[in-house]
Amino acid sequence: MASLISQTTSNSRIQLAATAVVSAAVATTAILAFQRLQQDSRLSRLKQSIPDPADSKGALQKLSRHSLPKPDKEDEYNQILAQRAQNGDFDDELILEQLARNRVFLGAEGLDKVRNAFVVVVGCGGVGSHAAAALARSGVSKIRLIDFDQVTLSSLNRHAVATLADVGIPKVQCLQRRLIAITPWVRFDLRLQKFDGKSAAPLLASWEGGQGAGQKPDFVVDAIDNIDSKVDLLKYCWDHDLPVISSMGAGTKSDPTRVMVGDIGTSTDDGLSRATRRRLKLLGVTSGIPVVYSTEKMSEGKAALLPLADDEFQKGSVGDLGVLPDFRVRILPVLGTMPAIFGYTAANHVILKITGYPIDYIPAKARDKMYDGILAFVQSSEERIVRTAEGGSPEAGMGLKVPLTTGDISFLAEELYRGRSVLTGIPTKLVLVRWKKPRESTLIRIGEGDAEQKSSNLRLRDLVCMTKEEALRHQKLVLGGNKTTEELYGAEVISKVAALRKIAEAYEPHR
């Protein structure tokens, strides 16, 4: 053994190899130590350069038009740091290190796009606060926060950053107060104001002052839970080509696996989204707005939005019970985790869109195929009606066009009839079929010969939702026979259909 060691140590090649390994290890250690010392030095210089708030003698300047009530020393320290960072006096290497994971994921170019972005968050409660926090942590450098409300004790179960010390202050200030301690280089524009149609233009205007002045919003996050304000915001964004993502209702939801992103036309199992879609449809907006929503259905034992108690109505006008006119007057049942999921999902969408990262969301329940199938059934049904009216000629229905889109099908089947048969409430194998037998020909001809166009005079109000089996029976007895709907169905069904057809008629001018 001793001779082996002696031979090994006397071998010049082995000695050189060992020397190289040791030298490499020493060099690596020295480089890492030097980098760590540089980092520590940067942090030390940064901290030492900030004056003690107790000795600042008014050096602290307001970062917004609203000031926090009696800021403590930590607040003053954070605001001084934020002021200096926003003025460019902050080592960029430290920022890049804080955003290192994002940079690796999105690439240097993608992170640059995020850092140069301007995002508006409207509504800074449970959903909006988490969205704003995620955007700031991800590197968005210009964030406008819009909300009129204050932090309350009941806010603390779902707000991203609020503490007991924040109760009573505006939510926009609460977010800035906490987030500048995490990302001091982010510039916040605080708007303590309720969003509505009249205030839309100034609240969604370009960035004002400093670096990025004149920059239009790269994205708008709708985290409003008031239907009027939500519709005003989405319509304004639609009209002015502002990219927006809207959060539907997180209230009464409990299943995080059902939260997804899709077009506003596909979000069906939520009261807020249903009301929003109907109002937007009246304004001519039927699709093209991405939304965060839940496909979770309500069932026995789950939380639900209960009606106001009778004694509340005795107090006077229900509208007078709210903190503001036309604002909510009830406490929504909300599981604190769900608004966070909605908010982070919205922020995730914004980041992916701004950077151009590939998005491949799972389609909602393969609804497109279902709508195509229903549209095909309507098409064949209309062709059959035309052939019967034209004496049974097979050519009469050939090339017939139906004035419906899959958006119309979605509205009727999902929104109006809630995905159930109007006769039995069965939710499977649904189709749309004419309710009444036409009294005259439904065929519309335009042009002649090869240029002739044939279409049906079908309207939204003409169609009702049934299962396929029910529709085939209805076609045979009513549309192709001599039975009337009054003879075939009960008074309750007749009344229900009449009310729904009236709603459909109101939507027809806005298609």
What do these coordinates show?
This protein has 511 residues and is an alpha/beta fold. It folds into 2 domains: 63-302 and 334-355, Rossmann fold (3-Layer(aba) Sandwich); 367-510, no CATH class. The chain has helices spanning 2-10, 12-48, 73-86, 92-98, 100-115, 126-138, 171-179, 200-203, 227-239, 271-282, 310-313, 337-355, 367-389, 406-416, 468-479, 485-488, 491-507, and strands at 118-122, 142-146, 187-191, 219-222, 244-247, 259-263, 290-294, 400-401, 430-434, 443-446, 453-456, 463-467. A 7-stranded mixed beta sheet has the order 3-2-1-4-5-7-6, sandwiched between helices. A 3-stranded mixed beta sheet has the order 8-11-10, covered by helices on one side. The chain has a two-stranded antiparallel ribbon with strand order 9-12. β2, α7 (171-179) and β3 form a beta-alpha-beta unit. α6 (126-138) packs across α12 and α13 packs across α14. The model is unreliable at 53-67 and 312-329 (pLDDT under 50).
Question: Major beta sheet, specifics?
Answer: 7 strands, mixed
Give helix and strand order, one letter per element, not per position: HHHHHEHEHEHEHEEHEHHHEHEEEEHHH
Strand content: 5-15%
Low-pLDDT windows of residues: 53-67, 312-329
Whole-number total of structural domains: 2
Structural class: alpha/beta
Would you tell me which CATH topology of the largest domain applies? Rossmann fold
**Helical amount:** 40-55%
CATH superfamily heading of the largest domain:
NAD(P)-binding Rossmann-like Domain
Mean pLDDT, to the nearest integer, reads: 82
